[in-house]
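Quarterly update from the structural biology core.
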Amino acid sequence: MFRAAAITTRRSSQTLLHHRTSNIPPPPLHQNPNFLHRQFCSTPSSSSAKEAEIRKYIGYTALLVGSAIATYYSFPFPADAKHKPAQFFKYAPLPEDLHSISNWSGTHEVQTRVFLQPENLQELEKIVHDANEKKQRIRPVGSGLSPNGIGLLRAGMVNLALMDKILEVDREKKTVKVQAGIRVQELVDGIKEHGLTLQNFASIREQQIGGIVQVGAHGTGASLPPMDEQIISMKLVTPAKGTIEVSKEKNPELFYLARCGLGALGVVAEVTIQCVEKHELVEHTFVSNIDEIKKNHKKWLNENKHIKYLWIPYTDTVVVVKCNPVSKWRGPPKFKPKYTKDEALQQLRELYVDLLKKYRNYS
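Predicted structure, tokenized:
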């Protein structure tokens, strides 16, 4: 009886202890032995995320400032350059000594403070020598007819437009010696009185002879050489060897490389060109299509001295232009046009009138 009462009392004490312990609150986090483990395994707090974001933007700012400083000091300004401070949100005029140079088609442009135009060989030699002494890059540029920007350089350019004289004409050998800055049209007009002309040249004649030779320009005709193959000898102004003359007899290996050297082997100062007798050409222009050209291309190349194709984009139409010398015995061919001048221009007049009526209200 007493044993049963003791057991009952013990069970009641255990039950009371259970109820009391269940009502005790859990210990604080810093007294919990698993606290450190849980904190290490949890995600970063918001403060550390903000610090990472701040460090990221500080890095971007440092990169931007460094790039700006590098760009500023890489621009080849001389020590005595006239700097005009820009004003924020206001237009700052360009310095007076800053030249804007673009190619002929206007697709490439560069600004430079070094754009030199010598008037004679001695001035050109001094320019190349000084640039070499100062370790300064300089690039020869002509009329800029190349569609790319190969002749443009911010560090500095030299242009021979003022060295444009015909130095010597040999009527018997049919050769002409010129300064490299003379333009093709000026050269053709100048040797015309001597009964000479160039073997081949492009339809655009604004190029300087030095430039048209260095880029390997050409005209039309399968049997006609490009401009660089018409050169007999050249005078180059180089930074290391000074002024040298190259030809098939004098330093032939360098001569063949320098004929189409893109200005990389020196500045072309003078050129001797093999010419031909002056002659007249008869031009025949007609409209064709791609299939007909594929069929007759080889035949037309053999039959005509000059031939070129002008494809009209987004169509099958091709304008064919043939040019052949006039025979000294037969004279120019007698050609009767299919249409009179008024008939040939009638469709163009009608188109102009229609466009005028259609778009007059938009002006």
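The domain at 166-277 is CATH 3.30.465.10 (Uridine Diphospho-n-acetylenolpyruvylglucosamine Reductase; domain 3).
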